[in-house]
Amino acid sequence: MIVFSVLGPIEEVLEAVLRWLHGSIGISWAWSIVVLTLMVRMLLVPLTVKQIHSMQRLQAHLPEMKAIQARYKRPGQKMSPADKQKMNQETMAFYRENKINPAASCLPIAAQIPVFFALFYVLRGFEKEIFPKFPESSLEWLNLIDITEPTKDGFGPVLLVIYVLSQLTSTWLMSTSMQSAAQRWMIMVLPIVFIPFILGFPSGLMIYWLTTNLWTTGQGLITRRQMPRAVPPPKRSSRTPPKDGAAVDPEPALDGAPAVSATRTGPPRRVKKKKGSGGRKR
């Protein structure tokens, strides 16, 4: 009951938008779903921008985060609960200091989940509740797919193949920042694992998700070209020269002699090697 109460307002909004796109603008039901998907994605652009910025900052500070983990993880030993708690506290403090939000990468997907399920319930009762009010309309898309039929019927499997390919492409573009190959392959396999569950979904829902994947793919290609990459923080070492104008303490004076400056100016002094008296004579 709680799920229905939460999704109820979203269902009403989606149904009203579909009615308006079909009745007022004159778009077919299938293309109304496509336009509805584009409208949803445009509303999620601010969350997507936050996601991209967060991923860039996370990538720039990845060496420092690995250094924090290395201080607590010892090879061949299991981390104690106290060390694990300290590592988590230091990591969270590092996130706050550098304005990194690890959950930002999940915001666009999390925002789409209620829309996805709300559209599922709209399409489930579409043929009985909405379609009879528009007797001259058609439920077909490209004269091949009925948006209310399950994806496994008719040409739905073709749509499913296109969906899997688009899902793999969009997932690959969004997972390029992951350093772990295991994480990347796990995300790549998920669309294939979901196939048995989505065979019974209405084809209109697959049109929505296919359009979302195509949007994500194009968005990933554009943002990688237009948005500048985050500059990683400079690494300091013992060989890092001092900044211009930085004073260097002179060497202390000995026995009243004047202090010697630690810095030299001019060309380096050449040291001549003394010639030996010659090798041994045999």
Q: Largest sheet, described in full?
A: 2 strands, antiparallel
Q: Work out the oligomeric state of the chains in this entry.
A: single chain
Mean pLDDT: 76
Strand content: under 5%
What is the strand arrangement across the widest sheet? 1-2
What is the tally of helical segments? 11
Helix content: 55-70%
Structural classification: mainly alpha
Helix and strand pattern: HHHHHHHEEHHHH
Distance between the termini: 107 Å
The gyration radius over C-alpha positions equals 32 Å
Molecular shape: elongated
Number of domains: 2
Uncertain residue ranges: 242-265
Tally of extended strands? 2
Task: Note down, in words, how this protein is organized.
The protein is mostly helical. It has 2 domains: 2-61 and 100-226, no CATH class; 62-99, no CATH class. The chain is 59% helix and 1% strand. It is built from 11 helices and 2 strands, in the order H-H-H-H-H-H-H-E-E-H-H-H-H. It has helices at residues 2-25, 29-43, 45-60, 62-72, 81-98, 107-124, 126-129, 156-174, 181-193, 195-198, 203-226, and strands spanning 140-141, 145-146. A hairpin with a 3-residue loop joins strand 1 (140-141) and strand 2 (145-146).
